[in-house]
Amino acid sequence: MKKILLAVTAALAITGCSQNEEFENAGQNAEIKIGTSVVTRATPMVTDNFAEFRAFGYAYKGEDAYGPATAGTNILDGFFTSTDHTNWAEKDSKKFYWPSEGKVTFFGYSPSELPASKTYTYPAGGGYPTITYTVNDIIESQVDFLVAQLTGQTKSANAVSLMFKHALTQVIFKLKGDDKNVEYTVTNITFKALKTSGTYSYATQKWTSDASPTADYSINLATDNVFVGGDDAAKTLTAAEQLMILMPQELEKATVEVTFSATKDGVEIFKSGIKTAELTDTWLSGEKHVYTLVLKAGDELKVSGTLEDDWTSKNGDANVDK
Fold first, then answer.
1. Are 105 and 150 contacting, i.e. CB atoms less than 8 angstroms apart?
2. Given pLDDT bands bounded at 50, 70 and 90, which one contains residue 86?
3. pTM of the predicted protein model
4. What is the pLDDT of residues 191-248, one digit of tens each?
5. N or C: which end of the chain has fewer CB within 10 A?
6. Cβ(144)–Cβ(192) under 8 Å?
């Protein structure tokens, strides 16, 4: 099983039964089932966790492709759930049907419940919807928010599949000491003044982050926080309270503060204190950024950044000495 979900396919079953003159005859109506289980930790969504989502469908006529000026009529709005990740049902047993002519464009997101005061909005004149969203200030409560869209579907399709993808940015820290003879004790890492809210556009598939509010995200390391330096990264912080899923944004001299101490042969060579690194980077949807914090006892803190695994890769390095 893939540890990181790149795309979740939700099959939208086509069943038969006529509803009224607007819909196709028996054997050609379509029921879309969508569901998701809310992930209450900062854990990237995996297939076994994907059990509920919300979807919308908009019918329109004409041969032109769906675009910003297309006026769609909402024929589907449902909350869908599944227990086996294959068969999906609307939670209130609603059924939805193909129009007798034209096409349907679908949009979806998961989890189906948005944060308080945040909304999904379809423009009055048609086109592409937007979603406002806020990342949780508590790391272990952050959610791998997913989005999906599928345009220009017709009643001839036997099934409609929504492909969900990561909408936010995953951030992981690694800890490394530059001296193999030194023991390092790290007690806290704080990523400061990050943007937490923004608006996602289905048209551009990008975010516009809000300038405020901002938040500081702290990783407190009370246990399992001592390691010996060396060539390899000694620790990768991927526990629920350490792995962050954050708002895509432009980092303009964002700061990372690391509180640590260092000893050699039982003698303290760096008294517990804070070293700061500044980062300039661009975070996009679906990217996984891994920052290695290189601790040098009594002197500088170096930072390097790479992207890993199945998320869209983009390399970047930064060395900062404060």
1. yes
2. confident
3. 0.80
4. 999 999 999 999 999 999 999 899 999 999 999 999 999 877 678 999 999 999 999 9
5. N
6. no
The answer to whether domain 30-166 and domain 169-308 are alike in fold is: yes
Across-strand partners of 307? Answer: 289
> How many residues does the structure list for the chain?
322
As given in the structure block, the two tokens for residue 114 are: 């948005």
Cis peptide, bond prior to residue 99, ω within 30 of zero: no
Whole-number pLDDT of residue 315? 58
Collapsing DSSP to helix, strand or coil, 87 comes out as coil
Query: For residue 93, is it left (φ>0), alpha (ψ between -120 and 50) or beta?
Result: left
CATH of domain 30-166: 2.60.40
Give the whole-angstrom CA distance, residue 135 versus residue 140. Answer: 11
Q: Which two tokens stand for residue 91?
A: 């939670």
- Please tell me the distance from the alpha carbon of residue 182 to that of residue 263, in angstroms, as a whole number: 6
Q: Give one DSSP letter per residue of 265-305, joined into a string.
A: TTEEEEEEEEEEEEEEEE--TTBEEEEEEEE-TTS-EEEEE
The HSE-up count of residue 127 (CA atoms within 13 Å, CB side) is 12
Q: Which residues of 148-183 are buried (b: 16+ CB within 10 A; e: fewer)?
A: bbbbebebeeeebebebbbbbbbbbbbbbbbbeebb
Q: Which of 92, 132, 111 is nearest to 35 (CA)?
A: 111
Bridge partner residues of 289 (DSSP): 171, 307
> Using CA atoms, how far apart are residues 30 and 15, in angstroms rounded to an integer?
5
Residues 153-159 have a mean pLDDT of: 74
Strands 73-81 and 89-90: antiparallel
Domain boundaries in the chain? 30-166, 169-308
- Chain position carrying tokens 């990342």: 135
Residue 169 and residue 311 in contact, taking contact as beta carbons nearer than 8 Å: no
In the sheet where 120-121 sits, what is the strand order?
120-121, 130-134, 197-201, 206-209
Q: Stretch 251-261: mean pLDDT, rounded? A: 91
